[in-house]
Write a structure and sequence with these properties.
transmembrane helix; mainly alpha; Growth Hormone, Chain: A; 430 residues; globular; 0% strand; 77% helix; 21 helices
Length: 430
């Protein structure tokens, strides 16, 4: 019985398993209201995703422009890949500091810093005339801004919802799809009509308004839950189920970044126009906006671990079934729509999965570890993909396509093992 008591937080799924009446050490004293002001927080988190990850998702348009315009002649394709990777890795690198500041000063203070960094990064990038300026602005500042906005908000919805936890997270993460679609088409249009500099400035202004509104509306329930909020809780790293979850996160990110950033240039490599390449990014994000809330409903109805594992495997299979043979606009659009709904499985499931593994009280501490674990893959995934290209070949992106597909398939094996471990533990303590 002692082993079961020690692991009760990890085993208990709030939505699916009733905790013993006397156990309140690892879970909340007051249960989530499953609504009320929580829906305002869903709208605020939706806006955060829209005006942070949604904008980052449109970086493929900038990447394609940088690669084909020669605007920075001293830069290589690796430079532009790293700048896009910084949008993710710097956000994750900031996680321990963001977790500390949120515990110390509250969620609104931390998010306001993010608003300033994110919008300031885009506006400052509009004045860049050397590639290292882009590293500091569109890479470093934008990445830190995303982290300071997104990371404090990530744990909020799980505090407000229990039975509808995955649905709330699915709706929220769908904001990145809406933002990605709108900003992909809008960014290309602004570059064509206003020029690169003004495209960056307008984006910076819009992100300021959207994210500041979200920061004002956001409200957590820390006073009810009393979360640990450790910036780097090494105690959790001693647990096998936590290591499985983090391994899934690391490897799936290799495939995610490769698909997200490579699709526009892949489209041009098979002879599509720049406008069609932009459409591909837009359709991918439409798939994201439609697919994530639906997947949230499935996750609440069925096992969250099972759904995450199945989606991860499907991502890998879709790369081989649809992306590899894609040589036309129609099939590439079809792949973008299908993969868009499932490719970001990490972002929409990581919050509920952390609760499944470690409990609500440890949620923010485990999330901080998750963000830290994906720093390297988000930084270097696209670098690896561009190195794997075969420029001049009729199948230029063959190896990046295989790399992305295999990454997801291997990642799904870790979720399969996590499923086995959790079932074994439930049977032990059942």
């Amino acid at each position: 019985m002692e082993e079961c008591d020690d692991k009760s937080t990890a085993i208990a799924t709030i939505a699916d398993i009733d905790l013993p009446r006397g156990r309140q050490d690892d879970e909340i004293v007051t249960p989530p209201p499953d609504g009320g002001y929580g829906w305002v927080c869903v709208a605020a988190c939706f806006a955060v995703n829209c005006f942070s990850w949604g904008i980052v998702a449109s970086y493929g348009v900038y990447l394609s422009h940088y690669l084909n315009s020669g605007i920075y002649p001293e830069a290589s394709s690796i430079d532009f890949a790293l700048i896009g990777g910084f949008n993710f890795s710097m956000a994750m690198l900031a996680a321990p500091l963001v977790t500390f500041l949120t515990r110390k000063f509250g969620i609104r203070f931390t998010m306001t810093i993010g608003v300033i960094l994110l919008s300031g990064g885009f506006i400052a990038a509009s004045f860049a005339n050397r590639v290292w300026h882009l590293y500091l602005t569109q890479g470093l500042l934008v990445g830190l801004g995303v982290g300071f906005n997104y990371i404090p908000s990530m744990a909020v919805l799980s505090q407000w919802f229990e039975k509808k936890r995955s649905l709330a997270n699915g709706i929220s993460s769908g904001g990145s799809g809406i933002g990605g679609a709108v900003f992909s088409w809008a960014t290309q249009a602004m570059i064509d009509r206003l020029g690169l500099a003004w495209a960056l400035r307008v984006t910076g202004i819009i992100t300021f308004v959207g994210n500041m509104t979200a920061a004002i509306l956001m409200r957590d329930r820390n006073h009810h839950i009393r979360p640990t909020q450790f910036a780097f809780d090494t105690r959790l790293l001693r647990r096998y189920d936590v290591l499985l979850l983090l391994s899934w996160a690391i490897i799936s990110m290799l495939g995610y970044i490769t698909i997200l950033f490579s699709l526009p240039d892949f489209a041009m490599s098979i002879g599509l126009s720049r406008a069609q390449a932009t459409d591909i990014v837009g359709f991918l994000n439409i798939g994201t906006a439609v697919g994530r809330p639906i997947i949230g409903i499935w996750s609440d109805r069925y096992s969250r671990i099972d759904v995450a594992g199945l989606l991860t495997l499907l991502c890998g299979l879709c790369c081989f079934a649809f992306w590899l043979p894609a040589t036309s606009y129609g099939l590439t659009v079809f792949f973008a729509l299908i993969i868009g709904g499932i490719v970001g499985v990490f972002w929409m499931t990581i919050g509920p999965l952390c609760v499944e593994v470690a409990g609500l009280k440890e949620l923010q501490s485990l999330l901080s570890l998750a963000w830290t674990s994906i720093i390297l893959p988000t930084t270097f995934s696209e670098v690896i993909a561009l190195k794997l290209r075969r420029p001049g070949s009729s199948r230029e992106y063959l190896y990046p396509q295989i790399f992305a597909g295999l990454s997801y398939i291997v990642a799904s094996l870790f979720v399969l093992e996590l499923r086995r471990v959790k079932r074994r533990d439930r049977q032990k303590c059942g």
